[in-house]
Amino acid sequence: MKKSAITVAVLFIHLVIVGCTPGNTRIDEEMGGLSHDQKGPSPADVYVKMAVAYLQQGKIGVALAKVKRGLELDSTSANAHNVIALIYERLSETGLAEEHYRQALELDSHDPYIRNAYGSFLCTQKKYKDANQHFMAALRNALYPTPEVALTNAGICSERQGDHEQAETYYRQALRANSKFPTALQRMAKISLQKKNYLSARGYLQRYIEVGRHTAETLWLGIRIERELGDLDTLASYELLLRAKFPDSEEMRLFEESNKK
User: Fold this and answer.
1) CA distance 58 to 66
2) Could you say which of 76, 194, 217, 227 has the lowest number of CB atoms within 10 Å?
3) What does R_g of the chain's alpha carbons equal in angstroms?
C-alpha cells in the first residue's frame, strides 16, 4: 500500500504521543500519514489534503470544515476518518475521535498510520494494553516506513504505566530503526539521567540537539545533566536559552526553585 508524502503534524503528543509529552510530542513526526485506499483515489482526497495543510498551520476550524466536506463526498475514506479523528482529539471531543478512529480501522485495518494514531489516542485515555496492541499491529506491517514512531509511542505509553525498562527497550529499538529520531533520543537522555548514567544522558541529548530543536524540557534536562557532570559553562548556556525562550515555562519555575535549595 503506497503512502502519500503528506503527514499531519500532530498534537506532542501523540510525542512523538508527545502529553507525556503519545500526547503532545504526540509525535509531531507522523501521527496521521495518509494512504491511498485499495479502492483507488477518492473524491475526498483533495479535501483531506487541504485539512492536513490547515491543521499544520493551526487553523483547526478550517481543517475540520474541509475534512467534513471530504466525508460528504466519500464517507468510506479511511484517510478522512483518520484525520477528522485527530482533529476531534485535539478539540478534546474524545467520543467523536473514538468513533472516527474505529470507522477508519473498519475501512482499512492494515494501515499502520491509522493503527499508530489510534494507539496514541488510546494511550492518552489510559487504555495502555489496547494501545500497545495497535502499536504492535502497525509494526507488523512490513511496508510501514517509519517504525521508529510507533516504537517511540509504545515507549512513552510504557513510561506512563511506570514500566521504564520496557520503555527503554522500545526507545532503543526505535533508534536502531532510525538513529536520528529526535523524540527517542530525548526520551533516552531522560531515562539515562534517571538512572544516573550522566555521560550517557549527555550523549543522547547532544545527539538530539544535532537533529531537533530545543524545548523548555530539553533545556531543563540539559541543566540537570550538566549540574551532575560539573560543566558550569554548558549549564549556563542552557540557562540563558531557557530564560530567553521559555521564561514563563514550568521548567523555568523548576529551575528557579532548584536554585533556592
Assistant:
1) 14
2) 194
3) 19
